[in-house]
Amino acid sequence: MVTQITKGIKISVLTSFEGTYFKNYKIHFAFSYQVSIENQSKDSVQLTSRHWEIYDALNQNEVVDGEGVVGKKPVVKPGEIYTYSSGCLLNSPIGAMKGYFNMINFTSTKSFKVIIPTFKLSAPFAIN
């Protein structure tokens, strides 16, 4: 698990290899990841959007931007943790992801970015 704290918001990510799939006559490697957003600040915050950079060992990189996470824009009060699961397909058995969440602080009404630390995606058979 990797973790990072930005402005009192702790992001933790846990990953898992889910298997291989054939899509469009090519093999793809499926990974799931669970993200926990823990509000260690004194203010309520809301996640409004996300930015992901997805890398694989074949240098086929992808950038994904979108509103919220898994169809939600969660509000996380002080001391609360919001957790969600998602996934991605890579063209290689090894890769990584990183990014950030755009959030709003309800007290100051200011937007800010929370860093999602780089986490590795690797199929067990690909690691020596």
Question: How would you sum up this structure, described in words?
Answer:
With 128 residues, the chain is mainly beta. The chain has a single domain, classed as ApaG domain (Immunoglobulin-like). Helix content is 0%, strand content 69%. The chain is built from no helices and nine strands. The strands form two sheets. Strands 4, 5, 6, 8 and 9 form a five-stranded antiparallel β-sheet that branches. β4 (45-56) and β5 (62-67) form a beta hairpin. It is elongated, with a radius of gyration of 16 Å.
Total number of distinct structural domains: 1
CATH fold-type name:
Immunoglobulin-like
Shape: elongated
- Measure the end-to-end span: 19 Å
- Helix percent reads under 10%
Q: Uncertain runs with pLDDT below 50, 5 residues or more?
A: none
Mean pLDDT: 96
Number of strands: 9
InterPro entries: ApaG_domain (IPR007474), ApaG_sf (IPR036767)
Protein name: Co2+/Mg2+ efflux protein ApaG
Pfam families: DUF525
Domain ApaG: 3-128
Question: Which key phrases capture this entry?
Answer:
ApaG_domain, 128 residues, ApaG_sf, Immunoglobulin-like, 4-stranded antiparallel sheet, 5-stranded antiparallel sheet, mainly beta
Write the layout of secondary structure elements.
Elements: E1 2-6, E2 9-23, E3 26-39, E4 45-56, E5 62-67, E6 75-76, E7 81-90, E8 94-105, E9 111-122
Antiparallel strand pairs: 1-2, 2-3, 3-7, 4-5, 4-6, 4-8, 8-9
Write a concise synopsis of the structure shown.
With 128 residues, this protein is an all-beta fold. It is built from no helices and 9 strands.
